[in-house]
Structure formats: C-alpha cells, structure tokens
Amino acid sequence: MAEGGPPRRRGPARRLRRAGSAGRNLKEWLREQFCDHPIEHCEDTRLHDAAYVGDLPTLKSLLQEESFQSRINEKSVWCCGWLPCTPLRIAATAGHGPCVDFLLRKGAEIDLVDVKGQTALYVAVVNGHLECAKILLEAGADPNGSRHHRSTPVYHAARVGRADILRELIRYGADVDVNHHLASRVPSLSLRPLTTLVVCPLYISAAYHNLQCFRLLLQAGANPDFNCCGPINIQGFSRGSPVCVMDAVLRHGCEAAFVHLLIDFGADLNLVKVEALGVESTGRVKVNPEALQVFKEARGRTRSLLSLCRIAVRRILGKSRLDLIHILPIPDPIKQFLLHEHS
C-alpha cells in the first residue's frame, strides 16, 4: 500500500490494455499490477533476493534498518521469480529453514497468501521442505492452508506420498477431511454438497497408491466412505466415477492392504456396486483380484463385535478427540487397538 493513501486499483479493462505490453517486460507489468507499493518503491529487492538464496547474514543486516523492517511483509517481484511474494514465502519455497525462522521472529506474517492464495506453509509442503514446514507449524501456521487456494497442504502431501510431512500436519491439527471446495465463505449459508471424490486426500493417496499416507489419514479420523465432513450428493457424481473411497480403491487397482484398512476403519461396504467391478479393465487400470476378493469376503460376513466396538468408540469421540485415547484409564494394548497402532 502506498504511503498516505489506499492501494491503487485498476479496472479489468485497463488491466487488459496493459497486458498487451506484458511481452516486452513481464516483470514490470507484474510489479505494476500486483506489488504492494508503487513501482519506484519495489525496485530494491535485496530483502527478497536474500531470502531466495538463503543469505541469512544479509537478511539480519537489512532488517536492522527501519525501512526494511516496514517491508518484511511486502509482496514484490524478486530476482529469480515472477509472482509477487513476501520474503517469508520465498524462503519457504526455497527451503531455507534458518531464514524462515528468522523472518518469523522479526514479525513476518505467517499465513499471508500470495496472489495465488498460497501460504508459506503450502509452498514449503509443495516443494518438499520438511524442516520449513515444521518451523512454520511450530510458529502457529494454519495447517489447513488458505481457503482462497484450491488445494491444501494435506492434499498435496497425500498426493506425493510425503508421509513425514503429512504426519507433522496431522500432529498440528490439520483437518484430514478438509475440503475448501465445500466451505462456504459466508458462514450462514449451507455447505455445497460433495459431487466428486477427486478433491479428497484419501482418494488421491489411493489413486497414487500411497499406502502409508492412506493409513495416516484414516488413523487421524478421516471419513472412510467420502473423506468429507459435509453433505454428499451421490446422484451428482459423474457417471462411471467412484461413489465412495472403497469404490475408488478397487477401481484404481490398489492392493488388498487398502481394502483391509477401509474395512477396519468402518467403511460402508454396501455403497459399492459389485456388478460394476471385475478383474477386467475398468478404465485404464485393472481391479486387483486379491483386493476384490477381500472386499467380497468382508461384505459377505458380519463384522466382529470387537471391530464394531472400536468403530463405535472412535466415531463417538470424533476425529478432534482421538488424541484423548492416550489418557484414558485403560490398558495400553487397548489404547493401541483403538488407535490402530497394533499393526
């Protein structure tokens, strides 16, 4: 924001006119459209450049000056980037943990989003930087990212199979059923029903056969049928698409271990239409014969009383209180059983 006045706003028509000259100097155009300050105030990108290369001594030196302290949350187009970003977002992207830690201690706003709605935590996760993710989470970053972005840290970690990062996100309270497509921006309005599983972390971990992430999500209380805590509109699902997580697991040719986990965590086996499945190809992937056999056998018999008790206890507690199992006055083997830590 320019000193002494509100930020400069440009209408869509003017932006389109100016975009025509973007080919000549794209960075200048990006600066003009998205930077927080007038162009003349954004020319000095030393703070942002130091964050990019991980130059902690330079960051410390610059932030001793009041002029740079006031720019710690400034979004600017920097030396090797195109999107206007804050120094914290740049350091998190590059994986410079010490710089991330220092910037936070100097007052960097932890959940400030870039022009794409990405937080520093999200870009740290996307780029696989576990240390930066831990630093940000310990400092209070929202583990769910921003609702202004279409993806979440949990979703991305589940997709790429980073169980180590996913475990940290869960430890700091990430919602394993989170789905920003469903969350209304106006609290008084009802939630939009789920009409596809593609947006769900459980689905994506199964689609990429990331068994460890799949297990972690279920252990943390993910809904085993839809991985969604809002309303469901199965009739709205695309024809031929999976109607529940078990259906997706079978259609994607996942091994039997995925099916066993869903059964153990209480998935509704009657949601799957067996007649639509077989060992022949369904799409581009063949159903795993062993997984299909496990599913059919499980659906043909009643769950054990022991299994039903565990499912009931976990559902009554709810995912937000599963961690209380550790302090229950019961033997450790029973705690491990309830937490699915026995296998």
Structure, explained:
With 343 residues, the chain is mainly alpha-helical. It has 19 helices and two strands. A hairpin with a 2-residue loop joins strand 1 and strand 2 (285-286). Helix 4 packs parallel to helix 7, helix 9 (120-126) packs antiparallel against helix 10 and helix 12 (163-171) runs parallel beside helix 14. The longest helix has 13 residues, at 305-317. The chain is elongated, with a radius of gyration of 24 Å. The model is unreliable at 1-24 and 180-189 (pLDDT under 50).
Report the count of strand segments. Answer: 2
How many individual helices?
19
Decide which structural class fits the backbone: mainly alpha
Distance between the termini: 55 Å
Question: CATH class of the domain at 1-149, anyone?
Answer: Mainly Alpha
Give the C-alpha Rg. 24 Å
Give the overall silhouette.
elongated
By CATH, the superfamily of the domain at 1-149 comes out as: Ankyrin repeat-containing domain
CATH architecture of the domain at 1-149: Alpha Horseshoe
- How many strands, what sense, and barrel or not for the largest sheet? 2 strands, antiparallel
The helix/strand order is HHHHHHHHHHHHHHHHEEHHH
Oligomer: single chain
Helix content: 40-55%
Strand order of the largest sheet: 1-2
CATH structural fold name of the domain at 1-149: Serine Threonine Protein Phosphatase 5, Tetratricopeptide repeat
Strand content: under 5%
Mean pLDDT: 84
Which stretches are poorly predicted, pLDDT < 50 over at least 5 residues? 1-24, 180-189
